[in-house]
Amino acid sequence: LAEGLQALAQExxxxxxxxxxxxxxxxxxxxDIAPSIQSGADGIGLYRTExxxxxxxxxPGEEEQSEIYREALMSFNPRPVTLRTLxxxxxxALPYFPVVEDNPFLGWRGIRITLDHPEIFLTQxxxxxxxxxxxxxxxxLFPMIxxxxxxKDALQLLQRARxxxxxxxHVIPLPKVGVMVEVPSAVYLAEALARRVDxxxxxxxxxxxxxxxxxxxxxxxxDLYNALHPAVLHALAHAARGAHQAGKPISVCGEMxxxxxxxxxxxxxxxxxxxVNVASLSRVKWVxxxxxxxxxxxxxxxxxxMEDPAAIRALLNNALVQAG
Length: 324
Ligand code: PEP
Ligand code: MG
Description:
Elements: H1 2-8, E1 23-27, H2 33-38, E2 44-48, H3 50-54, H4 62-76, E3 81-84, H5 111-116, H6 118-131, E4 138-142, H7 148-167, E5 176-181, H8 184-188, H9 190-196, E6 199-202, H10 204-212, H11 230-245, E7 250-252, H12 260-268, E8 273-276, H13 281-290, H14 293-304, H15 309-323
Parallel strand pairs: 1-2, 1-8, 2-3, 3-4, 4-5, 5-6, 6-7, 7-8
């Protein structure tokens, strides 16, 4: 089986009824790039830029960041590389930027920090834009957006970074811009958010945590953390409809996208692309190639009427076994 999956790596991820659902890799280090290419990734769907920040003892400067981003962009160009802006706070701390709070997951996290520190944000955005000179594949993704106001402010700073660079005589292509749907409010704003950007990307790791009020890292409540919970499935379907009503694509980049049973449901919801850890790439491609969208839609419809996540998983596992 392992050999079969290996051979599958370079095959396109197309359903049995001909829908292409690209499978991208998640990464955060330049060391992740070569394995992603070898594993047949269609691009990078989530580059966690906080990782290079975490392994330093100070904020990396514009030049230093730009070199890292350029290497990531060049290795996949013209295939997309999605650079997420700094997402610290919550469970991710920078040793040189301590944030101490009672409720870190409900506190100063992700875009909230970078909007409060435009100098950090502008440096990063300038570095990303400069890295994209002569290339066509830069996608910028904003984490932890919970309101339209935050998106407006983030877009304004992005515009400012680009204007500065144009004034400095750089030739900067227009990047594609996306918003992470990982806070429940963003699910209900999906259509409005999507109208203002090029794509949405669902972060199920945080979305499940916030929807179910279950800490994603607390072993004591781990059995309550379940991406197949009916509320999660309804939220995802709602977000997908919102994005498509706005005429924009929506992908999933949380761990749920690496779970074969969940992939069937995501196909049924017409999610446009998946982004997964490198180790899961060929398995996810196998699921996509083994199902038609029509069959996935049928299974989704059935699962949407069910109440018990364990029964939903059993039904999907059965479908996977039947598929081979
Ligand atoms: C997520 O929340 O699902 C996600 C992809 O981001 P992270 O795991 O980095 O919070
Ligand atoms: Mg997240």
